[in-house]
Design a protein that fits this description.
single chain; alpha/beta; inorganic pyrophosphatase (n-terminal core); CBS-domain; Diaminopimelate Epimerase, Chain A, domain 1; 3 domains; 5-stranded mixed sheet; 40% helix; 19% strand; elongated; binds manganese (II) ion
Length: 448
């Protein structure tokens, strides 16, 4: 059965990881099919801490959901022959299974070579076809029939594919060769099946459910080629397109985990105390322990319920999650790219990164180096400007560090920056208090 990947955004945060795992559990217990919780990148320290404490396995890291060769394969039973079979046995086998192409495998299912009915016929024709030595025919026949598969299988000039190759690359190779079937192997050369041109016509795209994002820029690579079945999110509506109508649940609440937990509760689907703790972690992380202005009454109500079920206390548990990220150990490059989001306005790209801390002074000391690193990132990615929000969760404030050629636009939005940064009281939310303000400035600038 083809799995459905439940996957969050790139640079995954706790909400994204927790929502993927929780929604996978929800789907698995309430719908048909096979669901896999996935992460679009390496997990951060907070997520690893939460998963370990609550005894969850880390989600599979899936960095591309583009169509690959294994998506073209049928999950039929594998039919094959072994190298020690005789030609007589082979002929009987081919007739019985009505097959024209067969893989030759060893006892560990490793691919050794290929046999086609055409190659087999060619052997007879080459030896008997001229009809000149009719009296020797019985011996020639006996000779052919006593040959082993190993003697006649084709091992050279084959076109075979690895399961993780892009389907598009395979398509090009298939169109420029003349074979009927193409064997597919895994990275250990184990045979998985055959594909043909016909399989290219059947679109068998990977299936995904997106949680905690709905913009292409934030989505796992290859999402264009995947079939999006559902989206559950709490961000602004972005630019992803679907072919079919889908279930799209977007609500302006503090975290995706709020929406997933609500779905469990509304539908009376059982979940374990640990899963309650996991979803609570997503809420606490995204709402900065309810201090962020993105926090809604629903987040608090659902969190209360999850507290009760999990037995965790929000404040202590939230602080424990926040104090696991030892930001002082992160390089400048890491600090500015770990939670970076790109935005587009016309033909300009800008980025806003964010780190949350309980010790703002420590990061302030590194401002000059951070600005340098940000300037380099701006040049590398052609950003008009970028901001790093260093958010003090206990003070409910943000030091906004700014870099890039057009950083004056940020000053227009938030006021003059002294030495590359500005302290903003009460500002904690990138999506609610920073990005919209910048967009507004960009919009006004375009009208002039
Ligand atoms: Mn979120």
């Amino acid at each position: 059965m083809k799995p459905v990947y439940v996957i969050g955004h790139k640079n995954p945060d706790v909400d994204s990881i927790a929502a993927a795992i929780a929604y996978k559990v929800y789907k698995q217990s309430s719908a048909e099919g096979l669901y896999i919780a996935a992460a679009a990148g390496e997990l951060n320290e907070e997520s690893r801490f939460v998963l370990e404490k609550l005894e969850f396995e880390a989600p599979a890291i899936v960095k591309n959901v583009g169509t690959t060769v294994d998506d073209l394969l049928d999950m039929d039973e594998i039919v094959y022959v072994t190298a020690d079979m005789t030609v007589v046995e082979l002929s009987n086998f081919m007739q019985k299974h009505r097959l024209r192409t067969l893989p030759v495998l060893n006892d560990k299912h490793k691919f050794l070579g290929l046999l086609t009915i055409g190659d087999l016929a060619m052997i007879f024709m080459e030896r008997l076809g001229r009809g000149q030595d009719v009296e020797n025919s019985p011996e020639i026949l006996r000779d052919i029939l006593s040959k082993k598969v190993a003697d006649i299988m084709k091992t050279r000039d084959l076109v075979l594919f690895e399961s993780h190759e892009a389907a598009e690359d395979a398509r090009k190779q298939m169109l420029s060769s003349r074979f009927r079937n193409y064997p597919v192997v895994d990275e250990d050369n184990r045979y998985l099946g055959m594909i043909s041109r016909y399989d290219l016509l059947q679109m068998k795209r990977k299936k995904v459910i997106l949680v905690d994002h709905n913009e292409k820029k934030q989505a796992v690579d290859g999402v264009d080629e995947a079939e999006i079945l559902e989206i559950i999110d709490h961000h602004r509506v972005g630019d992803l397109q679907t072919i079919m109508p889908i279930y799209f649940h977007n609500e302006p609440v503090g975290s995706t985990c709020t929406l997933v937990a609500e779905t469990f509760l509304n539908n009376s689907v059982y979940f374990s105390p640990n899963l309650a703790g996991l979803m609570l972690s997503g809420i606490l992380s995204d709402t900065m322990i309810f201090k962020s202005p993105t926090t809604t009454a629903k987040d608090r109500r659902i969190a209360d319920e999850l507290e009760r079920i999990s037995g965790l206390a929000s404040l202590e548990w939230g602080k424990a999650i926040y104090s696991t990220s030892h930001l002082e150990l992160h390089s400048e490059e890491e600090l500015i790219t770990e939670d970076l989001k790109e935005y587009v306005s016309g033909d300009e790209i800008f980025a806003v990164a964010q780190v949350e801390t309980v010790d703002l002074g420590r990061i302030r000391q590194r401002k000059d180096k951070l600005v340098q690193a940000m300037e380099a990132v701006c040049r590398r990615h052609k950003y008009a400007f970028m901001c790093l929000m260093v958010t003090d969760i206990l003070e409910a404030a943000t030091e906004l560090i700014v870099a890039g050629d057009k950083s004056n636009l940020v000053e227009q939005a938030f006021g003059p920056t002294g030495e590359g940064s500005i302290y903003l009281h009460g500002v904690m939310s990138r999506k609610k208090q920073v990005v919209p303000v910048i967009y507004e400035v960009l919009r006004k600038q375009k009208m002039m």
